[in-house]
Description:
Helices cover 39% and strands 14% of the residues. It is an alpha/beta fold. The radius of gyration is 22 Å and the shape is elongated. It contains 15 helices and 13 strands.
Amino acid sequence: MRILMFGWEFPPHITGGLGTACFGLTKGLSKHGVEMMFVVPKAYGDEDQRAVRILNASDISFDLEDSEYKEFWANIKYMEVGSNIIPYVDPVEFSKVFEDNKKTGEKYTSNVFSKRYEFSGAYGVNLMEEVARYALIGSGIAAKEKHDIIHAHDWLTYPAGIAAKKASGKPLVVHMHATEFDRTGGDVNQVVYDMEREGMEAADRVITVSNLTRKVVIEKYGIDPGKVVTVHNAVDQAVSKEIIEIKRKMKEKVVTFLGRITYQKGPEYFIEAAYKILQKDNNVRFVMAGSGDMLNKMIERVAHLKIADKFHFTGFLKGDDVTNMFALSDVFVMPSVSEPFGIVPLEAMRSNVPVVISKQSGVAEVLKHAFKVDFWDVDAMADSIYGLCHYDGLSNMFKEYGKIEVENLKWENSAKEVKKVYESVL
């Protein structure tokens, strides 16, 4: 079985959980005899290709006269944006969106249609232009490369998945890692919503990372329930024992938030819970690791509450820095307002760190040995954190059984379910 897979990022060059999930899934699928070509907008040459062949869209030239492009490019939606739009951050205003169905081979202005195009591989001002170019390249690859199924990860790659399906006639599977409702709290960007809906409508199967997300896909996008399948995410089991045994230099307990500092992740609730705990016990330190559009607001709130001497902002962490942070932590907290899944708690538990997670997260569906609270219930969150910091018996129980639990959440098992989805459309 040969899969043509489209994804916007691949480790070690990632901005969040999407790239991590793609990497884990491809490794798992390779163990089940699935061969994959993974197309990224920009490859850097240091990607791990033991389980997957990486195709760099920036290396692929484009000619309007090539037959595999002609049908798709005439109807492509080309959007100009006046400011950044970042798929896992709060919505950013579009200054200009338009559909161009009238371009001809003799007259066009966008470099989307140039023979060579260098993708940034980021989420910047030219994102929608890059999405359009990526879709065109996708149609060309699908026409030339042998494959059995097309698999597109998240909305950025759905146009490429649709174009590839039109070019090759092969079945399309789209993976929904996070919906526009998760990212924005309901204040959806209509352009992104439309792209998500169109991708799922065109797909033969839709994979959601949780039943929570499956419900949103069915109810908010009107997708046929019969073609929506939940496959929960997993966690890479490999972690350095040397890092886990790192020695701490502080005596205080350390409580960590690690994720994008955006509305979706609920950072303000973490700060309010920290304030309540510090009223009872001043021997605790809190870490907010990450970056995002709410960072300055969170720093100001910490200063206003006069707890800055007990609060640390690290900025964005990845790779070994994440594992090092867990090695220094006594409790991990994920207070997400809306979390399609949430791999980070699994990474924390893998490192022997007990976790407090919101009930509004997909990972809550698969975890038993974790404190689960409503994201808005700051008192319950504070009580859970306080208990794990002060009662060794409770903490040790969550560490022991949590470690066993997370060891069974393997990407190999998730990949087996994804392969079943593939087989159902062949």
